Amino acid sequence: MRILVFSDIHANIYALRALLERERFDEVVFLGDAVDYGTRPSETVDVLRSLKPRRVMGNHDHAASFGVDCYCAQENHELSVYTRQNITLKQLSKSDLAFLAQAPIEGHFEFDNLKIAAFHGSPSEPLYGYLYPWLISKSEVFTSTLGAPLEEQVVLVGHTHYSFTTSFAGYRVINPGSAGQPRDEDIRPSYAILNTDNTTIELHRFDYPRDLLKKEILTEVEQPEMRARLLKLFRVTP
Q: Which residues are in the Calcineurin-like phosphoesterase domain (predicted)?
């Protein structure tokens, strides 16, 4: 079984469509942050809904659906608030917000006897924790919010927009990176394929019609400073 694992699409419908057109899969796991920053939140939610994925809630999904702060990194906080107020909440319907709100804070799945734990952030801080490979040095990061050790063999995380896979303390840890807004050394979005037949993990990069996203940001974001910051954040500047 091929499981598509992706995260942090951030309303980049063009990247999401490109990903789904290029990859074959049997099941889908989405690690949160469907909305904010990007220009097409409603269409993004529609596509996610049609996929019927196993999913968890991201901090931006939580902020939009419950009207609270997203507590994202300080350098992007003002931008996230601006896009949430001026794009996300203006486009999303009540049913869209309800769909986002229905996602669990953490997920525990099983495919072909492979047990998987899924979090947007980290096991101990599912919405807001940042788990980079160089921070995985203490086994307590693999305890639940109640402090109990995780029982699953595979741990999926997102939130950092940084793609990696590593093993530690008996766990296989996978971050598919961001399928809509990468922030690591590669400007291309990323995702992972988890194959339960042989328990292999593939990290993939792809590109998409970024000129379409660039055009929308230029024409639909009225505030010049925010427009320039979005172009840079999505890496669609010349």
A: 1-198
- What whole-number distance in Å separates Cα of residue 96 and Cα of residue 158? 22
The total domain count for the chain is 1
Encoded tokens for 104: 């669990």
On whether residue 38 sits in a domain, the answer given is yes
pLDDT score recorded for residue 119:
96
- Distance of alpha carbon 144 from the chain centroid: 20
Write down the pLDDT at residue 153.
87
Tell me the C-alpha distance between 208 and 188, whole Å.
Answer: 8
Q: What angle do CA 115, 7, 114 make, to 5 degrees?
A: 10
pTM of the predicted model as reported, rounded to 2 decimal places: 0.95
Range of the domain at 190: 2-233
Spans of the chain, pLDDT less than 50: none
Collect all residues with Cβ–Cβ distance below 8 Å to 219 and sequence separation of at least 6: none
In a domain? residue 238 = no
